[in-house]
Q: What sequence folds into this?
């Protein structure tokens, strides 16, 4: 079984981002970048399926600028066998990413596609579902457990009220939630080995996809700040404030 | 033209978040239709019809939609999408699962988690865990939107629109529903509760969450949690508040033993009044708190319980 794992380069989860001075975007100069945490979970899950003997090959793919090759190297250090870099600079909206990935799927014919449920920059939570629609594949979103049984993917999903289990025919798209696994750290020898693994570059034109966009970001603002609060000295004072000042408890 | 709201329901009852999605729809157009796709879902359809502003309820009642799998519902909605200028759903896990699939079938983009409507084609949405708000304009003829329901005041009841059956049946077996394990609680829904009491890693164990539950019982509050508390198995995943969990904006949010990571703040910083109880005076949660109490939670919670 072949698994395709799309990954994305994003701002590191620990960075507190700032709006750019001209209020048009987020200031990303000199900011630490990393693989999107949900993508790490996707890579980890694919690697575990390979370790279990379920998967035979893992192909990582990213859509992005030159530097996004770093994240492909990370994916290969974690266990992906090879990777594909779809070269595209600038912002690419989720539908365009899904179309590019669909073209890669057509070439690679994976049995399973595992990707993060959302990237922590745009917080859109769209690409996996869009890709599934474009490929006419079933989708198991927000997965916290995944197994392959009798030629189908059994996916346990985190839903608002609790948990849901669906069974999907293959090929299928699975998107990862936080509790699917705990990703390993890449070891130094594996990081060295990853430098020699194949990384193929391809352009949207070569994939036959015209990258278009229907969205324009007109402005980006800081959210309104909260007014400074106070530190109370005791539980009694807290209850008094909530009751008589804020009037939020009876 | 009209706008379409996709109702969130479990066939028998309508999820109250739908009233907030209708409220968002009201800002877009005067003619609002609501779709109930399900099986034996007439009760939910009747409830949806009561929302003010709704002019028609579309009912797709078929076993094919029993579990509302997106593989069936997305093509169903896509088959009627041309009649609408916008299609909206709540930005919960159901809407997030369905809407991008629908958007791709329509070759449209999606604007996720809208918190305000500037114009019929222009919306405001949080990005980067709510550290910024983006104003986004779309040129798609049918706008596909998910709505952050905590940002829209729900519409009231008092209406009786016409009902129309949708007979289109989308059969598919690529995806099969196997089972569901939904938590049952006597407490108010986390997403719409007016008071939320949340616990973090500082609670230390599942048993200790009972200290919070006793307070929640006294206040008629919902229980929430940080990711660390969920990961540690103190409570179920459905209680996680944050960037990748539920977004809440209650009148009162009490954070106990929660440090206040940006991913957690993303889910609660629009609450009206925030209380933080934490033994670490430097914890970032105090930066958003209206009332902070620097103390050991194991001392504070029993005191709080007796004072309420
Ligand atoms: C991609 C991604 C997504 C994430 N999504 C979410 C999300 O949706 N929601 C979320 O919450 N987190 C999320 N996180 C995790 C987030 O970064 C934090 O790790 C998490 O919120 C920490 O939870 P916590 O505050 O309970 O634990 P900690 O950060 O460990 O804080 C525990 C706090 O308890 C206090 N404490 C301990 N003992 C006591 C005591 N006896 N009395 C009083 N105070 C005490 C400590 O001082 C400390 O401040 C996400 C992270 C990533 C990378």
A:
């Amino acid at each position: 079984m072949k698994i395709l794992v799309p990954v994305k380069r994003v701002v590191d989860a620990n960075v507190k981002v700032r709006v750019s001075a001209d209020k048009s975007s987020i200031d990303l100069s000199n900011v630490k970048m990393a693989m999107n945490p949900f993508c790490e979970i996707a890579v980890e899950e694919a690697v575990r399926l390979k370790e279990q003997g379920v998967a035979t090959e893992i192909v990582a793919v990213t859509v992005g600028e030159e530097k996004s090759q770093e994240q492909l190297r990370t994916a290969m250090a974690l266990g992906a066998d090879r990777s594909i870099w779809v070269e595209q600079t600038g912002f690419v909206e989720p539908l365009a990413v899904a179309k590019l990935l669909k073209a890669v799927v057509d070439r690679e014919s994976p049995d399973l596609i595992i990707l993060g449920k959302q990237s922590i920059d745009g917080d859109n939570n769209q690409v996996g579902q869009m890709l599934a629609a474009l490929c006419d594949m079933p989708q198991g979103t927000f997965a916290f457990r995944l197994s392959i049984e009798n030629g189908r993917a059994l996916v346990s999903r985190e839903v608002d009220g609790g948990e849901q289990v669906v069974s999907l025919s293959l090929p299928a798209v699975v998107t990862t939630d936080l509790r699917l696994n705990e990703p390993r750290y890449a070891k130094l020898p594996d990081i060295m080995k990853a430098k020699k693994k194949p990384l193929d570059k391809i352009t949207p034109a070569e994939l036959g996809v015209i990258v278009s966009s229907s969205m324009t970001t007109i402005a980006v603002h800081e959210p309104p700040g909260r007014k400074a609060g106070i530190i109370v000295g005791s539980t009694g004072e807290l209850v008094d404030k909530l009751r008589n000042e804020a009037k939020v408890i009876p | 033209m009209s706008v379409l709201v996709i109702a969130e329901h479990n066939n028998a009852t309508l999820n109250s978040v739908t009233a907030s999605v209708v409220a968002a729809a009201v800002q877009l157009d005067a003619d609002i239709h609501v779709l109930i796709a399900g099986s034996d879902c007439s009760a939910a359809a009747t409830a949806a019809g009561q929302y003010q502003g709704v002019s028609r309820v579309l009912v797709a009642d078929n076993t094919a939609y029993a579990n509302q799998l997106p593989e069936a519902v997305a093509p169903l909605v896509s088959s009627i999408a041309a009649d609408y200028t916008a299609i909206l759903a709540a930005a919960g896990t159901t809407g997030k699962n369905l809407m991008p699939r629908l958007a791709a079938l329509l070759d449209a983009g999606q604007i996720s988690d809208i918190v305000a409507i500037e114009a019929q084609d222009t919306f405001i949405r949080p990005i980067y865990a709510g550290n910024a708000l983006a104003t986004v304009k779309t040129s798609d003829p049918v706008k596909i939107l998910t709505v952050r329901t905590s940002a829209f005041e729900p519409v009231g009841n008092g209406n009786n629109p016409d009902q129309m059956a949708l007979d289109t049946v989308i059969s598919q077996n690529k995806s099969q529903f196997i089972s569901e394990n939904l938590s049952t609680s006597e407490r108010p829904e986390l997403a719409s509760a007016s008071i939320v009491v949340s616990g973090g890693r500082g609670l230390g164990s599942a048993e200790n969450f009972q200290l919070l539950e006793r307070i929640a019982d006294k206040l008629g509050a919902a229980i929430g949690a940080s990711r660390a508390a969920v990961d540690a198995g103190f409570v179920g995943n459905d209680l996680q508040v944050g960037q990748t969990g539920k977004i809440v904006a209650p009148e009162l949010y009490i954070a106990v033993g929660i440090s206040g990571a940006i991913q957690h703040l993303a889910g609660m910083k629009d609450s009206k009044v925030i209380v933080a109880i934490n033994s670490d005076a430097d914890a970032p949660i105090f930066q958003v708190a209206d009332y902070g109490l620097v103390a050991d939670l194991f001392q504070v919670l029993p005191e709080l319980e007796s004072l309420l």
Remarks:
- Chain A has a mean pLDDT of 97.
- Residues A 13, 37, 120; B 200-202, 226-229, 240-245, 257-259, 261, 263-264, 267, 278-280, 283, 296-298 surround flavin-adenine dinucleotide (CB under 6 Å).
- The helical segments of chain A are 37-51, 69-78, 94-108, 127-134, 188-194, 204-207, 235-245.
- The two ends of chain A are 60 Å apart (CA to CA).
